[in-house]
Amino acid sequence: MDAPSDLGDFLKSRRAALRPEEAGLTPLPTRRRVTGLRREELAMLSGVSVTHYTRLEQGRAAGASDSVLNAIARTLRLTEDETAHLKALAHPVRSATTPPRPEQASASVRQLLASMREIPALALDRRNDVLAWNPLGHALLAAHLPANAPDASATRPNLTRMLFLDPAYRALYRDRPSEAVLAVASLRQQTARHPDDPALTALVGHLTIHSSDFTPLWNRHPVRTCTSGMKRLRHPPAGDMDLAFETLTFPASSGQRLITYTAEAGSDSARALRSLLEETLPSAHPPEDPSSTPRFAIGSNLKHR
């Protein structure tokens, strides 16, 4: 990844998407060669010199203040996430040159996952590598993979890579195109925040080479933070499920987070998830002794007569 190029490409993509009328300009009757704003128009509306803005599109952001970037963001009508992304691209934070060690889920995180027996859950790093999952999380998302796959960096699943290249995981999502946009939007944010992460660079390169779906989405520069929402799954053999997901980021880690999936009580999705739980953990709810309750009731009645 080339941070200067990413900054210029991001600005160009957003400038091209904004029509003059949307920015409050009245287009002249002459034929325009561009559908979006011209550089000169954007610079004028933002109160920035054309030379200064042109440098930004060329990736030369040294000296660009937050006030200038905020003015451009307002003109382009960027969202909060997109504005933060613009600033991350303009002022990349360089990390130490020492290669990062493979991340691991801590013992306390593994204990937390194990305690959540009835809730699918998994721990991820900032690259979407699965660091650990509980049995129900494994059964829900990747039963076709070994349960111990996250334990070694060489076999560790990556949810973004699986969404584009793993047929079984791709088929799990009933609305896979929307999931793909969210995955790329998240990956765009991470690459801007961590421009020196070789694993992120390798992931983008791998997907660019091996997935025809990935590159067009990547070139659109989607940016969005998605920490909660709904996943619409078609799980073999449990069936269709609409599961709410929530993300908890661990404060003492470099982007590690916990994701959980739950179903609305009494819904078809809850019943499907229950059937998956019973198949995955048949001892989770052992059957009651049919004679235990009647004996207790009869004994109690006799005692109080």
Write the SSE topology.
Elements: H1 3-17, H2 39-46, H3 50-57, H4 66-76, H5 80-90, H6 107-115, E1 121-124, E2 130-133, H7 135-141, H8 159-165, H9 167-171, H10 176-193, H11 198-210, H12 214-219, E3 228-235, E4 239-249, E5 257-262, H13 268-280, H14 292-303
Antiparallel strand pairs: 1-2, 1-5, 3-4, 4-5
Helix pairs in contact: 2-3, 2-4, 4-5, 7-13
Q: What is the tally of helical segments?
A: 14
Give the termini separation: 82 Å
Major sheet attributes? 5 strands, antiparallel
Output the structural class: alpha+beta
Which whole number gives the mean pLDDT? 89
Shape: elongated
- Largest beta sheet: strand ordering: 2-1-5-4-3
How much helix, percentage-wise, in residues? 40-55%
Q: Provide the succession of SSEs.
A: HHHHHHEEHHHHHHEEEHH
β content, as a range? 5-15%
Number of strands: 5
Q: How large, in whole angstroms, is the Cα Rg? A: 25 Å
Describe the overall structure.
The protein is of the alpha+beta class and 305 residues long. It has a five-stranded antiparallel sheet, sandwiched between helices. It has helices at residues 3-17, 39-46, 50-57, 66-76, 80-90, 107-115, 135-141, 159-165, 167-171, 176-193, 198-210, 214-219, 268-280, 292-303; strands at residues 121-124, 130-133, 228-235, 239-249, 257-262.
